[in-house]
Amino acid sequence: MSRPGAPSRRLAGRVALTATALALALALAGCGSDDSPSNNAGKPELKITGAYMPAPVMDTMAAGFFTVTNSGGADTLTSVTSDLAPDVTLHSTKGGAMEEQKSFAVPADGTLDFASGGNHLMFEKLTHKPLEGEKVSVTLHFTKAGAVKVSMPVKSATYNPKTGH
Questions:
Q1: The whole model's pTM is what?
Q2: What is the tens place of the pLDDT at every residue in 12-68?
Q3: Coil, strand, or helix at residue 146?
């Protein structure tokens, strides 16, 4: 036999359990990622450091190096422009072979390095041969962050950023 009021107590218990489960689910959902534009994780926060160009040996070509540090969401470096050369291309070096790249991913909360022996810029058809001490103006073009201007000092041809010489 059922007791009077038992079904309503069971119903009240189920409602309370359902409400508790819903509240827990909503609380856990609040711990997830937020991809809204106001969240820093979605917007790249780029900082360019260590930029330099070794003094070119030839009158027609030069290389450029720098580091992109990103404290926000992912981005992509798509191109580079400079008054020093009509053609500035992106290159990687893998297994000793240099290969032109269309773009480079800039990871969220990560870095993208352009360093001697690795990723680098190639300035082709130079308007003039830059001398040590000169500064070359470069604009990096990113998918999300847009254009970022960088002043790239010309260092000695044998400059090593690890030693400063």
A1: 0.74
A2: 444 444 343 333 333 333 444 444 443 445 899 999 999 999 999 999 999 999 999
A3: strand
Bridge partners, 65 (sequence order):
52
Residue with tokens 């680098």, as numbered in its chain: 120
3-state secondary structure of 29: helix
Lookup: tokens for 36: 């809204």
**C-alpha neighbours within 13 Å on the C-beta side of residue 9:** 5
Tokens 């041969």 correspond to: 129
Decide: 76 and 44 in contact? Cβ < 8 Å: no
Residue in 83, 88, 86 with CA at minimum distance from that of residue 123: 88
* Residue pair 119/90 in contact by the 8 Å Cβ criterion: yes
Which segments within the chain are labelled E, that is strand?
46-54, 61-70, 75-82, 87-94, 97-101, 104-106, 111-114, 120-124, 135-142, 146-155
Whole-Å CA distances, 111 to 55, 62, 72, 137: 25, 23, 11, 22
Closest CA to 62 of 42, 44, 80: 80
